[in-house]
Each structure stands twice: as C-alpha cells, then as structure tokens.
Amino acid sequence: MKLQIGKFMSMLRGLLIVLKYAFKRPVTLRYPEKKRDLPERSKGRHHLTKWADGLERCVGCELCAIVCPSQAIYVKPAENTPDNQVSKGERYAADYQVNMLRCIFCGYCEEACPTGAVVLGNDYELAGYDRQSLIYTKGMLTEEKPGESGFDPNREI
Amino acid sequence: MWIDIIEVLAKGLTLVLVLSGCAAYMTLCERVLMARMQLRLGPNRTGPFGLFQPMADGIKLIFKERFQPAGADTLTYWLAPAIAAFIAFFAFGLIPFGPSFEFMGREINLYIADVNSGILVILAFTSLAVYDVVLAGWSSNNRYSILGSIRGTAQMISYEIPLGLSILSVVLAAGTLNLPGIVEAQAERWFIWTHPIAFIIFVICSFAETNRAPFDLPEAEHELVAGYHTEYGGLKFGMFFMAEYINILLVSAIAITFFLGGWRGPGDLPVVWFAAKLAVFVFFFMWVRATLPRVRYDQLMTFGWKILTPIAIANLIVTAYFVLV
After folding, report:
1. How does the average pLDDT of chain B come out, rounded?
2. Distance from the Cα of residue B225 to its chain's centroid
C-alpha cells in the first residue's frame, strides 16, 4: 500500500516537472531566421589562407591529403619557378580540392598543415543541388585577400 | 413544428461545425503544448504562429490516395471510421452547454435533445465506440490492427464498469438521470466536493475510454505501428483522428456536467464557463500525455479490475448509505 502511494506521488511529481518545463525557454531555434552563435573554434568549411604579402601558404606537401581519414582532400602540387612564385616553398598547390560530401570536419588537415595554410572556418551551411557543386576547388577555397577568411595573415605555426 | 425542426437543425449544425473546428485546433494545441513541454517549438511555419497548420493537415488528408489493403472487408472497412465519427458527435447532443434563453420570442435550450434518461443514452453510446475499434481492426486484414483492436475492446469494456459506477454515485445524489437536472442539482455545491473519489475514478476511466496516454494501448505506436487504424489513410484516418479528439471533448464535457457544475460559475457567463472548464480538461489530457509512459497490458487490466472496480463499488455503496440515511 505504501509502495502504491509512493508510485502515485511520483506520478504527480512527474506531472509537475513536465509543467515546469513548459515555461522554460525552448532549445529549438527558428533556424533560417535565427542562427546559433557558434563557438569561435567550431569547425566548418575549409579556407586556404595566404601570407600577409599575398603569397599562398600552401606548399603542396600533401600532408593534409595523407592524414585525412575520409580521403576527402586532393592536392595536385607543382613547382614554383622564379617567374611564377605562388608560395614561399619549393612547391605550391596547382589544384586543391576538398570533397565536402566526404569531409567529416575532424580538423586533422588543419593540425597536419606545416604552414597553417588549410584552416577550418565557421561556415556550416554547406548544401548543394548536385555532387559536383560540393567538391570545393582551389578557387573556391583560397581567400581573395590575406586575412579575408578571419584568420590572422601574420600568424606563425 | 417546422420551426422546431429548424431550431434543432441549426443547433446541430453549429455543434458539428464548432466541434470539428475544436478538434482541428486541438491537434495544433496538443502539438505546440507537447513541444513546449519537451523544450521544442512545435509547428510554427504555416501562417502566423502556425495557426493554419490544421488546415494544411486537413487539405493533405483530403487529397491523399484512396487506399484499401488486399483482403480487407470492404463494407466494414469503410464503415468503421464513419461509426467512430458519428458516435463521437452524437453523444454531444445531450450535453447542456448553458441555461435556456429567450430568442425571438422562443425559449431556446442550449442542448439538442432533452432525454429523460440522458446518462443512460450517453453511456450506451460511449460503449458503442468499441465497435469502430473492433470493426476497423478486424476488417483491415492486418495483424497489428487486430491486436490493437483486441486490446482496445478489452480495455474499453473493462473501464466502462468503474466509469458507469462512478457516474451512478452522482445519479444517486442528484436523484435524476436527466443531464440538465443534474446540472440543476449542482446549483449549491458541485459534485466534485461531495464525490471526489468518483471524480478521480471517472477521470482515470475517461483516459482509458478515449484511448489516450497512459492507456493508449490500442494504438501503441511503438509496438503496434498504429493499432487498429494502421491500414487507414487519407480522410478515413482523419475521421478516426477527429473522433479521438472529439471523444476527449466528450468525456471532458461529461465530467464537467456531472462533477464540475456544468455551465455554472461565478458571474452570468454560462457558455464561457463551460468552455473554460473544457479547456482546462483538454490541457490536462495533453499534459498527462506529455508526462506519463504507457502502462503494460497486464497492469492495465489489473488496475481496472482489481483496483478501480472495487473502489468504485465501495464508493457507490457508501454514497447510497448517505443518500438513504
């Protein structure tokens, strides 16, 4: 009998707890109108950054492609020549592709990069109508001006 | 003669329209309410605050493909949703929503039928609601459906008994079976104060009668897909859905009439008080659904037969003693 009363009281307590939650602020956001404030270091789409003098940071070492667990990165390196100095090293990336359909946003590429060229930004709204449009090529990934993607162009690794 | 028929038709049409609207907006209300209790927002895309959501749902249901499973019994398959909706609407004809008033030289009663033994008719019709569950489950030629309908039948028959017994104690106190008469008998004191145990039993049984959580075994989503209406789609499913919500309104209206003084309340606002009490009851139904998990089948039967029925009988005997002495 005592046990039954205890069960009944716990039911009532449950009802009150649920009622209390009805007056709390919902955790859901009205998404397209309101967006969540992301933490500064949250990982979204990639950027290929440049040095402050406009030279590309990527030296075409392919370490990012090697470390990538989902094999989303393709790097096609090329040699720098005196009249075509793209990066500070011997090589640069002639093509750099990130397959956003494969990428799991683990950030290993960013950690592996010896020059801090590839970084993960905050932009997470990556959607497209076909698979082609979700393979981001070098032109889409490279920032136009140094520091444009929100990373300090003078930072050292 | 003609004017009587017109009056009844007008009242009936108003009732059907108001009830359908209420049922439609109860779905929205329930979704938003349950969402808020689970820290979600609920539907808010269709129209301002999602207010057009029931219309969108209705349009979607109307334009669905007409579908019938192979091996289904055609007549009963089509009849079952109609029975469900009909019974849900029908019993409302007896509920008094307010006192009678003068309109264009005629005395208009705010109920459609003044049946001498109104309680008996209501109980008879709520018992008939078993038929739509049985026929729907049996005719759709589906194991889940038949399981759901067997459960539903057993549950509704079991809980009919304490429900009737709890109402009987009110009948004893009021000395009449007539619904306006019962509301009249509560002029001084609502029956909830003199019959609290009967009220609690009635509320518990009404949850079981309407197949709502925590007694929603006939349509248990997690075990039986959707129970007896698994094979129904489109507007036939819509009928079941509407009948479920109108049944909630119906048991709430019966509870209000029997225990909470019907349309009585402070100030001269009879229909408003009725609607307010109804809203509180509907909120309670949704609140309980958001909180309590489904009971197991044997627990349900044990609770009905070994706890509720003896308590209801004891309550009836005690009430009879006090009425006699």
Report:
1. 84
2. 23
Q: How many CA atoms lie within 13 A of B302 on its CB side?
A: 5
Residue A34 at interface with chain B, using a CB cutoff of 8 Å: no
Model pLDDT, residue B289: 87
Report the relative pairing of strands A91-99 and A73-79 from DSSP bridges: antiparallel
Please judge whether B37 and A27 are an interchain contact, meaning their C-beta atoms are less than 8 angstroms apart.
no
Do the Cβ atoms of A15 and B37 come within 8 Å?
no
Which helix (H) or strand (E) segment holds residue B247: the answer is: helix B234-259
> How many angstroms from the chain centroid is the CA of residue B282?
10
Distance CA B237, CA B230 (A): 9
User: Collapsing DSSP states into helix, strand and coil, what is residue B71?
Assistant: coil
Q: Give A106→chain B minimum CA distance, Å.
A: 29
Please indicate if any CB of chain B lies within 8 Å of the CB of A14: yes
> Where are any strands of DSSP class E within chain B?
101-103, 106-108
Q: What is the pLDDT of residue A34?
A: 85
What amino acid occupies position A33?
A: E
Distance (Å, whole) CA B318 – CA B325:
11
Strand-pairing partners, residue A120, are: A46
CB B39 within 8 A of CB A22: no
Query: Does A30 touch chain B if contact means CB atoms closer than 8 Å?
Result: yes
User: B37 and A22: CB-CB below 8 Å?
Assistant: yes
Is A28 within 8 Å of chain B by CB?
yes
Chain center to CA of B83 = 14
User: Considering the entire predicted model, what is its pTM?
Assistant: 0.79
Residue A19 to residue B287, Cβ atoms within 8 A: yes
So where are chain B's domains?
A: 2-324
Q: B301, B158 in Cβ contact below 8 A? A: yes
CB contact under 8 A, A26 and B291: no
Beta bridge partners of A129: none
The pLDDT of residue A26:
86
CA distance B282 to chain A (A): 14
A74 DSSP β-pair partners = A97
- Residues B116, B207: Cα–Cα separation, whole Å: 27
- End-to-end, the C-alpha distance of chain A in Å comes to 70
User: What whole-number distance in Å separates Cα of residue A106 and Cα of residue A70?
Assistant: 10
Residue with tokens 């039993």: B201
Length in residues, chain B: 325
Residues in B 277-296 with any Cβ partner in A closer than 8 A: 287-288, 290-292
As for the ipTM of the complex, it is: 0.72
